[in-house]
Write a structure and sequence with these properties.
The chain is mainly alpha-helical. It is built from two helices and no strands.
C-alpha cells in the first residue's frame, strides 16, 4: 500500500501554489450572478408591489403603476454600481 506522505504520492504538476490560478472567469460569473440577483430582486419586488396595490380592495391601476415607477427609479438609484475613479 502506498504511503500518502511520500513524494511519489503527488506529481509535481499537481502541486497547487496559492494565488497562481487564473480566476477571471470565476470573477465574471460571480459578478453576473450578483447583478442578476440584485436587479431581479428589485424587479420582483416592484411587480409584487404593483399587483398588490392594483388588486387590493379600493386599489387602482394608476396607484400601483406609480408605486412601481417609484420603486424602480429609487431602486435603480440605490443599486447602481459606483463609478470607478481614474487616478
Amino acid at each position: 500500500m502506498a504511503d500518502p506522505h511520500t513524494a511519489d504520492a503527488h506529481d509535481s504538476h499537481d502541486a497547487y501554489a496559492h494565488g497562481t490560478q487564473e480566476i477571471s472567469e470565476q470573477v465574471a460569473t460571480f459578478s453576473l450572478f450578483q447583478g442578476l440577483a440584485k436587479w431581479g430582486s428589485l424587479g420582483l419586488a416592484a411587480v409584487l408591489a404593483f399587483l398588490t396595490i392594483w388588486f387590493m380592495p379600493g386599489g387602482s391601476f394608476m396607484a400601483g403603476a406609480i408605486v412601481f415607477v417609484v420603486m424602480v427609479a429609487g431602486g435603480g438609484f440605490f443599486l447602481r454600481s459606483p463609478k470607478s475613479e481614474a487616478h
